[in-house]
Amino acid sequence: MSDSQPQQPFQSPRSGRGEGGGRGPAHGPSQSPSRGPGHLPGPDQDRPQDEVRGWSRTQGPVHGPIQGRGHDDGPHHSRSQGPSPAPAHGHSPGPGHTAAEATTLLLAGARLTDGRTVDVRLSGGRIQAVGTAGSLPAPALSRVDLAGYLLLPAPAEPHAHGDTALTADGEGPVSYTPDEVQRRATEAALLQLGHGATAVRSHVRIGDVHGLGPMEAVLQARRSLRGLTDLTTVAVPRLLTGVAGADGLAMLRDAVKMGASVIGGCPDLDPDPTGFLEAVLALADEHGCPVDLHTDGDDPGRLARLAAVAGGLRAGVSIGPCGGLSRLPLDVAARAADQLAAAGVRVTCLPQGDCAALERRGLRTAPVRLLRAAGVRVTAGSGALRDAGNPVGRGDPLEAAYLLASQGGLRPGEAYESVSTAAREAMGLPEVRVEAGFPAELLAVRGDRIAGVLSLAYSRIVIHRGRVVARTSAVREYCDSAVAVALDLPRQGRTEPGP
Predict the structure, then answer these.
(1) Taking a C-beta distance cutoff of 8 angstroms, is the pair 146, 446 a contact?
(2) In which region does residue 327 sit, left (phi positive, over 0), alpha (psi from -120 to 50) or beta (all else)?
(3) What is the rounded CA–CA span in Å between residue 362 and residue 323?
(4) Closest-CA residue to 471 (of 2, 144, 189)
(5) Which pLDDT score, from 0 to 100, does residue 128 have?
(6) What angle do CA 492, 497, 499 make, to 5 degrees?
(7) How far apart are CA 385 and CA 3, in angstroms?
(8) Which pLDDT value is given to residue 476?
(9) CA pair distance 144, 120, nearest whole angstrom
(10) Residue 159 and residue 202: Cα distance in Å, rounded?
């Protein structure tokens, strides 16, 4: 939970209780999941209880003082009465799948990026059918009305730091007790889920005085979040060479055995960066793990050596945030980009700001257009979420895409692809399209075009494994005025005159 809240015993989402007392994830655009004094009722408050049960409510973005019911731009989510429908084709949920994944959900009236308005039927965690609006029968199905919403493949978060998230405002040293790390990692993943990321790759530091404790805590958070979001971990040792590096290498092996699925680190901080890189790649090749490294990217010779040895790793290599590439002469940076592209090395940039792993601040964003022109697969992550690396980090993939479009020179569609399709590819996840047969990992955002969504992406519906797992509804009202009346804007409720 956020640092402004009193400490409470940690309860994992698997217990069935969110922070707000309901069931399901607590989330909000930049709010803590609890209700504080002056909490405003959400737009679903006066809906029938059977329609909103299962949600931990949080306050979404509200503009201006609210005095009564305002305009709710959230979708209507209704359920048929009676037992849940049987799985499609009579199949029961397979191993590793929940019963919820076997139910059928109809997304009605959603707009696609090609301009079509469609109904989308989900079943068994996948998209079962896509048809013109009103063409898909929906007897006894759960139904979500997405009129006015743009339906997109869900984003994924390729660069998070759940072990240090939400620590920027804390007093004194940051606590790394297992309970505190698990709490932070869980809340950070839920906040990012509320923004739309249904998969998160979290870099976790190991070694030093904390040993493998933070890794164990984040792995526990991963288990508790199963069914809500997919959380994977990157083991990040500090040193891998010399006398001190022997312990780091042994601990890295143990982290992989514990369940870390990606091997990371920061070669820039090791006295022997080349030796560090060789140790990481050898261990990754031994275990069949992908590699995801922190580097500033300001040393072209080091990047050339990385490209020379990384091409043979079948599981793939990602590096980031590579802000140092922007400070190199253009011809040098272009040559480095060509080498990375030839080796198949992906770059994860952090448009919202640095993470703390590089132990330096003020670096520029990677030269995304130059990298893309060379053929490098570029994805965008959030990096720090309110920790020392970025005290105001929001962990919002749509904000990362917005920054790539507004400052990075990408078209809105290209920017969104960097936080969705490219991010999923970098994380080894299946491709998602709004087409039959693809995984039901989806995000519905109020709007009708990508550009508008990146500009004003307030109301969001997040779908993971075929079910709605997070919902944010924004309410905006204007004062009672002639302009508001003329434009038919939603107005604040008026109190009855007193005696």
Answers:
(1) no
(2) alpha
(3) 9
(4) 144
(5) 95
(6) 160
(7) 13
(8) 82
(9) 10
(10) 6
Backbone angles phi, psi at 250, to 5 degrees: -65, -40
Structure tokens at 473: 């509804």
**Below-70 pLDDT ranges, the chain:** 1-102, 138-141, 356-363, 491-499
Q: Could you give the CA distance from residue 426 to residue 262 in angstroms, rounded to a whole number?
A: 12
Among residues 213, 306, 224, 298, the alpha carbon closest in space to that of 251 is found at: 213
pLDDT in the model for residue 388: 85
Would you call 487 exposed, middle or buried from its count of C-beta atoms within 10 A (0-12, 13-18, 19+)?
A: exposed
The total of other beta-carbon atoms located within 10 Å of residue 290's CB is: 22
What's the chain's Rg over C-alpha atoms? Answer: 23
Q: What is the model's pTM?
A: 0.79
Give me the count of residues in the chain.
499
pLDDT of residue 98: 53
What is the C-alpha separation between 5 and 499, in angstroms, rounded?
41
Positive or negative torsion for Cα 165, 167, 168, 174: negative
3 state SS of 206? coil
Query: Reduced to 3 states, what is the DSSP secondary structure of residue 357?
Result: helix
Question: Which 8-state DSSP code applies to residue 103?
Answer: S
Q: Which of 347, 334, 339, 319 is nearest to 418 (CA)?
A: 347
pLDDT for position 102: 57
